Amino acid sequence: MRTIIYIIMIVCLQACRDKKDILKDNHKIIVSDTAKINGMLLELIDDNGVGKIKVTSDKYKLSESLEVKPPCYFLRYNGKVTSYAYPQFNVQKTIIILGETKKDNLGKITGSDIQGLLFKNDSIKLAGVLKNYSPINPETGIDEKDYWGFASGMYKN
């Protein structure tokens, strides 16, 4: 009799475990891009179709949803994340995140939506969004005027 009870318990526990695994499979989290800025790790995440940014450091903790759709990438030039400082706006670094990206048949990535990320003295915050921009390659980036637009507040949500 004890053996039968143990077998039933094992079957029930196995059934419960399988359901949890199914839920995990339906909720996919993918890190699409990472960068290290001023000793901070920045991760762009596709959380089941929602773009998120996660910043981990001793000084800052940020985990926030993006307005641009994943997969998302930091704009770079020669392999390095592009940033500009605008002291007149109290912004030490302005970084741009590319969203609404697609891969073509050759594996080249382009996107059409951008969102700013501003590093200020005491905070990191997401800036506005520009949608339906002409196709942007994350490895060649865009003109500096757009970084200025995010830092100045011209490109607001």
Features:
four-stranded antiparallel β-sheet; 44% strand; five-stranded antiparallel β-sheet; 2 helices; 157 residues; elongated; 11 strands; single chain; alpha+beta
Write the layout of secondary structure elements.
Blueprint (H helix, E strand, L loop, with lengths): L1 H25 L2 E9 L2 E8 L2 E7 L4 E5 L7 E2 L1 E2 L2 E2 L2 E3 L4 E13 L5 E11 L4 E7 L13 H9 L5
Antiparallel strand pairs: 1-2, 2-3, 3-4, 5-9, 6-7, 8-9, 9-10, 10-11
Tally of DSSP β-strands: 11
**Overall average residue pLDDT:** 85
Q: How would you characterize the largest beta sheet?
A: 5 strands, antiparallel
Q: What is the beta-strand fraction?
A: 35-45%
Q: What portion of residues is helical?
A: 10-25%
| Oligomeric state of the chains in view | single chain
Number of H/I helices:
2
Distance between the termini: 67 Å
Which parts are unreliable, with pLDDT below 50 for 5 consecutive residues or more?
Answer: 18-24
Q: What string, H for helix and E for strand, traces the elements in order?
A: HEEEEEEEEEEEH
Structural class determined from secondary elements: alpha+beta
How big is the Rg? 21 Å
Write a structural description.
Helices cover 22% and strands 44% of the residues. It is built from two helices and eleven strands, in the order H-E-E-E-E-E-E-E-E-E-E-E-H. It is α+β, with helices and mostly antiparallel strands. The strands form three sheets. Strands 5, 8, 9, 10 and 11 form a five-stranded antiparallel β-sheet that branches. Strands 1-2-3-4 form a four-stranded antiparallel β-sheet, with no helix packed on it. Residues 18-24 have low confidence and may be disordered. It has helices at 2-26, 144-152, and strands spanning 29-37, 40-47, 50-56, 61-65, 73-74, 76-77, 80-81, 84-86, 91-103, 109-119, 124-130.
